[in-house]
Structure formats: structure tokens, C-alpha cells
Amino acid sequence: MRIIHSVSELRAHLAQQRSIAFVPTMGNLHEGHIELVRMAKQRASCVVVSLFVNPLQFGPNEDFDKYPRTLEADCAKLEGLAEVVFAPQVSEMYPEQQTLYVEPPPIANELCGAFRPGHFRGMATVVLKLFNLVQPQIAIFGKKDYQQLAIIRQMVTQFNLPIEIVGAETSRAADGLALSSRNQYLSAPERTEAVYLYRTLTHLATELKAGNHNFALLERHAGQTLANRGWEVEYISIRSQHSLGFPALGGHKLVIVAAVRLGKTRLIDNLEVCL
Predict the structure, then answer these.
(1) Is residue 148 part of a domain?
(2) Residue 172 carries which DSSP code?
(3) Per-residue pLDDT tens digits for 186-224
(4) Catalytic residue flag (residue 33)
(5) CA-based nearest residue to 82, from 144, 142, 17, 146
(6) Beta carbons of 151 and 107 less than 8 angstroms apart
(7) Which of 117, 141, 168 is the last residue before a domain boundary?
């Protein structure tokens, strides 16, 4: 496995590769990330994993400075799975002030985008930069960041990028909590309580499959259930899987998406439902 920090070395090393699968991450890897890398290894001869905490997708009051940076531990987990680890400094990815951005579609201003203005613009911009550097045939993203995945799919389609985007199922702890680097911010009591997010989503899915399609009422009750337990609910919303817009009458491929805060920790999760 080769650890690369510079753009020039990365390009030189990958120049002769014809089968590349790419897994972009912000590091602090957990088992969910490793599962993405295992999927990549099945699909290409060269697996590239990026470890880069992207400042463009963090707001002024978010956790960019304290976001865990664990390069040595991450590389140990990737040994034998990845051929290349790309871990650039911010100055390498942004050699001058970034004044050109990917402007994401209107859905980027809803759901998480309504609470994190500019986040998806920064995310899409760095992903496009990484795609240009790595030139993969396949890129793998987890479905936990469902809105992110939807925006990346649209970007690849609309910019005619020759990249297959693979969405991987969310990796979960035994009690159902979606794996996330931010889970380590949870205190012990909060970690016990955190399972109720997934339980709330599964209850919603059960209601939908039973024929209850009063989406607004279901969303309101789910949010109130968590609020009564002390959670701060940003949103719980039932959307179309394809567009993340509001479901059309008779639509049967739905996704329940949610963002909540438990103490100081922001958690996101989702659950696909086929009626």
C-alpha cells in the first residue's frame, strides 16, 4: 500500500492504472468505511481511498477543527485492502483560494442543506476535484449520507463523468445505530439512547407498509416522539428515493430521512421503504 500526500505523485502513480475504484472519506475510519473499501476491491484492480477533511463543507460554527484526524490508525485499517491512500493537506487540494464551485441542484437547500447552508456546494466541489485527480471508473459511497449520494449521482450524470456510482447499504451497530465517525462524541448514556433514532425510522416504515400514507402526520408524530425523549429534531421527512422530492401520488419507492441532535452530537440516518 502506498501513502501519497501530493497531487503530482498521485497522478504519476495512477497514470498507468486502467481499473480504479475510489472510496472518498474524511478519515477516522470505522467498519462502515472498511466495508466500502472491501466492495471496491471486488470491482477493480486498484483501490484508492482518500483521507481528507474538507474545509469547504463545514460551516463557521461546525466541527472542522475538532473533527478526528487519525491518519496512522486509518492506514493500518486499510493495509491489504487499498493500493493507494491519498491523504493531502488542505494546501494541496486548494493551492489557491477556491472561487469556482459546483452549484448543486435545488434539493441541496432542503433537508440537511436547510441546516448546513453551503455544505453540499463544498462537498460536490471537493468530490469533483477528487474525481479529476483519481480518474476512477467506479466510486463507492455509503447510503447513510443519502442526500449526498443523490447529489453526487446527479453531478456525475449532468457532467457526463465516466464513473459508475455505487451506493452501499448503511453499516450499523448490533442495536441498529448507523456507524458514524461522530458517534464517538456521544456520552455513554447518549449512546444507549441513540438507538431510538433507528427504532423511530423502523416504526415509520412499518406504518407506511401497513397503508398509513398520511406522511405529514407520520413525520410529526415521529418528531414529537424523539422530542419527548429530549432530542432536538431538525427534520424527519418521507421522500422519493429517486429525486428526494416529495413523493408523487402512488409512488412506491420511498426513503425516510432524518437529522437530529442528541446532546451536542448531530446524527443522520435513513431507511428505504418499498410499498
Answers:
(1) yes
(2) B
(3) 999 999 999 999 999 999 999 999 999 999 999 999 999
(4) yes
(5) 17
(6) yes
(7) 168
Interstrand relation of 2-4 and 84-86 (parallel, antiparallel or unpaired): parallel
Residue pair 186/194 in contact (Cβ under 8 Å)? The answer is yes
Give the amino acid at 139.
Answer: A
Contacts 24+ apart (CB under 8 A), 60-65: 62/116, 63/182
d(CA 158, CA 162): 11
The whole-number pLDDT of residue 187 equals 97
pLDDT in tens, 101-110: 999 999 999 9
Residue 104 resides in a domain: yes
Predicted confidence band at 248 (pLDDT cuts at 50, 70, 90)? Answer: confident
* Count of Cβ atoms closer than 10 Å to residue 206 Cβ: 11
Please name the amino acid found at residue 10: L
Taking the model in full, what pTM does it have?
0.95
What is the C-alpha separation between 23 and 116, in angstroms, rounded? 23
Residue 251 reports pLDDT greater than 90: no
* Whether residues 49 and 22 fall in one domain: yes
Using the CB atoms, write b or e for 131-167: b if 16+ within 10 Å: bebbbbbbbbbbbbbbbbbbbbebbbeeeebebebbb
Question: What average pLDDT does the segment 70-95 reach?
Answer: 97
Rounded CA separation 61/63 (Å): 7
The answer to whether residue 249 scores a pLDDT higher than 90 is: no
Q: Which of 5, 30, 33, 119 is catalytic?
A: 33
**C-beta separation of 224 from 200 below 8 A:** no
- CATH code at position 194: 3.30.1300.10
